[in-house]
Fold this protein.
Amino acid sequence: MALFPPLDMNPEDVRAALAPLRNDFSVAVYTAENAFAVGAIIRVAHSFLAREIILIGSSPHYEKASMGMEKYETITRVQDDDAFLQHVAGRPVWALEKDRARASLYGITAFPKNVVLLFGSERFGIPAPMLERADEVLGIPIYGVNHSLPLAVASGIVMSEWARRHYVDKTF
């Protein structure tokens, strides 16, 4: 259930209030060149109370697209693959890359605890060396002539599937 906007609280107090409600997954975005998409992902990650949003590389994000939610989120920026892997060491990394998928999002039995969901750029996806280092590579089935989904939509589908599996007994 969505919380009422904390209009009378400063962002640090809101972050502290949300901390115990955070979920055990993080979202990572690999050099997404679409600043609007990254802002939208921040907004979606906030809606699902992701633990952390990791931005790999120096691509900017468009704060208006996050509708102000960036001020309530933990956003970590790392410069490259090695810094990312060091930052998430010990946590499973599940990449989303349709063309190199090992499994369907809907065919997996469960998400591991503390999973980091890794998304690539809309144009280039996730580089092969990073996919090889991922613990799992998932695809989202699509059926039209379009070859891919917008990055923000794909991330929203995956976070929604994570939530559906974790909150089966709760209503919205």
